[in-house]
Amino acid sequence: MNKKLSKNWVKRSLSSVWHPYTQMKHHEQFPLIALSWGEGSWLYDCDNQRYLDAISSWWVNLFGHANPRIGEAIKNQLDTLEHSMLAGFTHKPVVELSEELAKLTGNTLGHVFYASDGSSAVEIALKMSIHFWINSGEKAKTEFICLKNSYHGETIGALSVGDIQLYRDAYQAMIKPVHVVSGPDSRATTNLGDGQEMVKSCLRELEDLLKKRNNHIAGFIVEPLVQGAAGMVMYDSSYIKGVRLLCDKYNIHLLADEIAVGCGRTGTFFACEQAEIWPDFMLLSKGISGGYLPLSLVMTTDKIFDRFYDDDVARGFLHSHTYSGNPLACVAALEVLKIFKDEDVLNKNKMLASSIHQELEWTNYDKRISNARSTGMMFAFDVKYEHMPDHFPRRVFETAGKNELLLRPIGNVVYMVPPYTLRKSEIDHLSSSVKKTLDDVLV
Q1: Which phi and psi (to 5°) does residue 414 adopt?
Q2: Hey, what domains does the chain have and what are their CATH numbers?
Q3: How far apart are CA 384 and CA 366, in angstroms?
Q4: d(Cα 75, Cα 330) in Å, to the nearest integer?
Q5: I need a surface site. Which of 109, 224, 349, 368 has the fewest CB within 10 A?
């Protein structure tokens, strides 16, 4: 394609497509990028300009674009069974995927319910939690706890357990109140001792609430190790271990939202593994299908499942999604799990993360940057500059594109969650392009 065709696609998109997370009027100053194709860690626009996908296209393309293994698995399934309803039917891909996921938890979380997106997984877990308590004769347990500045999705239930007012304000009439507690933040500590004291303080605050409201609280939802939309807030796994103990002590559910932090992103397949605990509900989406097809899921225990298993229809979990357990999405996820195993991804990622961390070492000394941090394959830093430009995130997005890089900051936080397939030359490009982008924006 040429520039004329590229501009044509952008013009047609702006007149017909309502883009997500976007004030559409801003595109009068910040043009869209019309993509044409992708390969490996790169995206290419209609003018054949390339962009290193430093955020895995919203954290989903774990093994890059046009991955031959995942693509082949989907093509093979396409000629066999593209879709069937999962009510009253089953099929090989959904059974095998459920079994493989359960194995990853030592069969502790042996029951899997499927949907299409992360917000839907949150809705499912919230409904399951409340319904469990109803079936248990504890109908008063309908409240939830979340962390300060937490984000768990955009549907009404998911918004109700989030704490970012920008997303909630317009919909307050529809949103149920939530208990908000402080969570640890590595940026607020200078040494290990301070970090441990912060964890203890946050756990004390949580326990104070549970002492007062445990008979009314159904569960506590949390992103283990990293709060993404809060600004890549990273914290020690000891907090999650302490939360698990308190949830057990006061008889409430622990809902682990691993939609963004699961699938190897924090260094272990599940972030909860680093706390050596399992939640009552494990939520996955994003990377589980390698970025190929919409898929989300909720994993839970025998104890939860058994409370719904009854002759009474009303005690069943009467929730559905048309594309639940879609065979194409399931085979994509199965191939993702096979790649993790066949290519020893988790161990390779340790070396890859070390290489990226070393190449980004300059962020520790740049005076425009503070709180450079990382967890597994997640990297972030805060930008604090005397003359911060207006619309900083959009300016970074636009300028990074000119430097062959895809970045999408959260406020003043620049983060990178790249594919697990980065080569040495691409790591070099990532680092140099981030620095050049800051140089170009912060003038």
Answers
A1: -95, 125
A2: 3-66+344-441 (3.90.1150.10), 71-342 (3.40.640.10)
A3: 10
A4: 13
A5: 368
For residue 301, which phi and psi values (nearest 5 degrees)?
A: -95, 170
Largest alpha-carbon pair distance within the chain? 68
Question: Given this model, what pLDDT does residue 1 score?
Answer: 43
Structure-block tokens of residue 432: 């140099």
What's the pLDDT at 2? Answer: 56
Counting as low any pLDDT under 50, the low residues of the chain are: 1
Q: Which residues share a beta bridge with 141? A: none
For tokens 């605050």, name the residue.
Answer: 205
